[in-house]
Amino acid sequence: DTGVSQDPRHKITKRGQNVTFRCDPISEHNRLYWYRQTLGQGPEFLTYFQNEAQLEKSRLLSDRFSAERPKGSFSTLEIQRTEQGDSAMYLCASSSAPNEKLFFGSGTQLSVL
Amino acid sequence: AQSVTQPDIHITVSEGASLELRCNYSYGATPYLFWYVQSPGQGLQLLLKYFSGDTLVQGIKGFEAEFKRSQSSFNLRKPSVHWSDAAEYFCAVGVIQGAQKLVFGQGTRLTINP
């Protein structure tokens, strides 16, 4: 169990640029989640994959956000035309079953200038 | 809609003292309840969870929590804190229907005095 890996750890970008984050879940986990955490708040659910299928998306996920999990392994989260309000910690988590515990990665901290 | 309230944003206790972190939830059905801990630079780690059964739940690192349906509460306790317990603690309520979609509280930051 190597844990959930997220890359990069930090990303600084200018407003209007596109950014992409990567998440590598625990290898045998077929469920993968993206959450967003802003300063002083708890994480908020963004989206969820079961294998390669994206089964649920939060209303928080605007059209500028897209997530993929092409082969049911790693996942990417892309934000187009970033805005300052996108500045947050983006957390990835995985699990092996609906009621099994989530393993969280350390997150990608995005700063939009 | 589900919601979680953690009334205390910041708590300071002395090492060796007892700890109780408060959590109140709002949910229409029997809730799935969780406590997570987040240390700087670390991912969220599950301390304990309640799905059903015994309302007193034991977790890792000596933590326990008690589910009280009448009070819509799920408070976290530890009889004697250690300096390494300093961290941010999050209570969460979950919907588990194919996915473990959690709604988190805003967190309680715990500081330990030596």
Order of helices and strands of chain A: EEEEEEEEEEE
Strand % of chain B is: over 45%
Characterize the largest beta sheet of chain B: strand count, sense, and whether it forms a barrel: 6 strands, mixed
Q: Could you give the count of β-strands of chain B?
A: 12
Chain-averaged pLDDT of chain B = 92
Alpha-beta content class of chain B = mainly beta
What does this structure look like?
The complex is a heterodimer of chains A (113) and B (114). Chain A is mainly β. Helices cover 0% and strands 50% of the residues of chain A. Chain A has strands at 5-7, 10-13, 19-24, 31-37, 44-50, 53-57, 65-68, 75-79, 88-95, 103-104, 108-112. In chain A, strand 5 (44-50) and strand 6 (53-57) form a beta hairpin. The radius of gyration of chain A is 13 Å and the shape is globular. The mean pLDDT of chain A is 93. With 114 residues, chain B is mostly beta strands. Chain B contains no helices and 12 strands. In chain B, the strands form 3 sheets. In chain B, strands 2, 5, 6, 10, 11 and 12 form a 6-stranded mixed sheet that branches. The N and C termini of chain B lie far apart (41 Å). Classes of the chains: A mainly beta (113), B mainly beta (114). Chain A binds chain B through residues 3-4, 31, 33, 35, 40-45, 48, 50, 55-56, 91, 93, 95, 98-107, and chain B through 4, 32, 36, 41-46, 49, 51, 90, 92, 96-107.
